[in-house]
UniProtKB/TrEMBL annotation:
Domain SAM-dependent MTase TRM10-type: 1-132
Keywords, alphabetical: Methyltransferase, S-adenosyl-L-methionine, Transferase
One BP annotation, GO: tRNA N1-guanine methylation
The protein's enzyme class: transferase
Reactions that this protein is recorded to catalyse: guanosine(9) in tRNA + S-adenosyl-L-methionine = N(1)-methylguanosine(9) in tRNA + S-adenosyl-L-homocysteine + H(+)
GO molecular function list: tRNA (guanosine(9)-N1)-methyltransferase activity; tRNA binding
Keyword Methyltransferase: yes
Catalytic activity, EC: 2.1.1.221
Top-level taxon of the source organism: Eukaryota
InterPro entries named among the record's database cross-references: MT_TRM10-typ, MT_TRM10-typ_sf, tRNA_m1G_MeTrfase_euk
Protein name, as recorded: tRNA (guanine(9)-N(1))-methyltransferase
One CC-aspect GO term: nucleoplasm
Amino acid sequence: RLMGCFTLSSVFEMDTTPESYLDLFPLETIVYLTPDSENVLEDIDPNKVYVLGGLVDESIHKQLTLRRAREQCLQTARLPIREYMVKAPNSRNYHSETLAINQVFDVLSTYYETRSWPAALRAGVSSGKGYVLPDTAKQ
């Protein structure tokens, strides 16, 4: 399998390797991002390695990434969607904090550049997820 390692800066670099992140980085530096974590990601620590899971947790595999991280004795965190966004009324009553990898990357890279969770979440969380920033909830 290939693993992409991203360096968050104004220029994004990516290296691919068949090695596991568990073999490349000390366990105490790895933070597995999963929407099911109890821990809220409050800031990006440049000394940590953030794993963006490529599994869908939304339906059949609920909490799969959280279980995987716990099995590997890794720290976990979730994006602060609940802390900065509100549930938007919608006809399907659908609200999901599970994002695609590119959306998570957009959130993280925007936060890294702006240091603003509202700006970052606006960049990465589509309205189709059922969450909006409070200032757009009534629009």
